[in-house]
Sequence to fold (533 residues):
Amino acid sequence: MEKIVSLCKRRGFIFQSSEIYGGLNGFWDYGPLGAELKRNIKECWWRSMTQLRDDVVGLDASIIMHPKIWEASGHTSTFSDLMVDCLLTKKRFRADQVEPQSGTAYFYTGVTDGTGAKESKDAFSVLIATGKHAEYARKVARQFYQQRGIENPALLGERTEEVKDSTRYNPENGGLLTEPRPFNLMLKTYVGPVESEDNKSYLRPETAQAIFVQFKNVLDVSRQRVPFGVCQIGKAFRNEINPRNFTFRSREFEQMELEFFIRPDEVIQKMTGAVALLSDPQPSTLNPQPTWGWELWHKYWVEQRIKWYESIGLGRDTLVEYWQKKDDLAHYAKATVDILFKFPFGTQELEGIAARGNFDLMQHQKFSGKSMEYFDEEAKAKYVPHVIEPSAGVDRLALALICNAYCEDQAPDEKGKLESRVVMKFHPRIAPIKVAVFPLLKNKPALVEKAKAVRDLLRPHMSVFYDEAGAIGRRYRRQDEAGTPFGVTVDFDTLGEKGPELRDTVTLRDRDTMKQERVKIGELVSMLLERIR
Ligand code: GAP
Fold:
């Protein structure tokens, strides 16, 4: 990860937000290459979700919405993590992320200040490694009481106990942590000039709810019929207690979510006389069928999503499909499959695909008083549709693609001597820059002029980078690190200096194999488009 984080900064994929002011924990900025990478991810997702399908339409909703939405969705009351604070440093941890500690715990019942004028009856304890000198525990305990205004604390009631795998102590200093208590992850703000309870609002913690609350409007205008979906890409905010693993858990991030509305199983049963189930012998989940109940729609979307990840270069062997156990499931979910990626820091979630029943639409019907019922002309039935929700994070995926692309290998330098190179092997579909164009030498006007003409020829069709600075090998290396899949070099052959048959041809270099082929300039656009689509 260290190498990846440093490359991200060096090459302008990802910067710390507000860096010149010391950064802001949990917030990140995308530099020139990162911004292109993210755009490509979002465009690929949008294209595959809506433009290549008849049954999904898009939405672009506001980030701040009516606060009642978050009451209806359950976020106000339940969207929280248990957190604990260090009583000494006030550092906050997610309760489930405190490393279990073993050792000797030193307990104190309080202190006096020696003169008897001041005392504290606050109990405190410190965990230290077994065998470590007791004075260490006493020093930490004294600091705790000093912070409570007792200048020269004399510790009272010291006793010890052997402790195994306890999560009650701060792993960094051994000090006692507070009892776990819930911490709501939604970021609050006030809408309008008055900072009152009535004007309190939230930055959305997920994009999904906007889709549910606009369900009826989208239905009215899009002429879609259930089963159909609405998808959205946009920012979401969570006041994560412990943002970590680079951009993996951030406080501001982007989601790509689809809510795919389906008929309830009872309606399908009535319409077709049977509901196809996962437990049926060899159920096909390739082409949607009228007999599909929620189970098969759910499986269908899991497979569609995995295929999409493969199409942008995350091989099946880098992904894990995790079917959540009953105890893992969110309160609204009938089933959830997490698609995990093997990050260098562990195998972690990229996307969750949940079968949410009709929980959300029912909640909004209840809280808004507006009907969310749908009349299904084919089924001759009125119902509140159920939903399958594939929900992915753009930033996590960008990080996965960066980790997946990072390679170190050997390449010959100018003199043919092998040197190590860093190469980002992005799939051409999501690579930030598709092609780099180089004149062999910068001080030959004819080469420069021709190379610029090639750049202008390619530019309307794809992202192009023109580079004339430095030795050609160094220029290749720079593009290898940026993950540019193709390099076009204009040389003296292009100008026809070795004979007419090579005139108006260029070399096309492949980033991964480093092989070069001679290509006619007139064929470049179509050849490259075929390789990057
Ligand atoms: N509407 C369902 C929902 O929001 P989620 O599992 O909480 O479900 C979906 O989030 C996806 O959003 C995750 O799989 C992840 O990719 C991304 N995500 C969630 N929290 C994130 C965070 N703090 N930082 C970056 N990405 C996050």
In short: The mean pLDDT is 94. Residues 16 and 28 are 5 Å apart (CA to CA). The two ends are 30 Å apart (CA to CA).
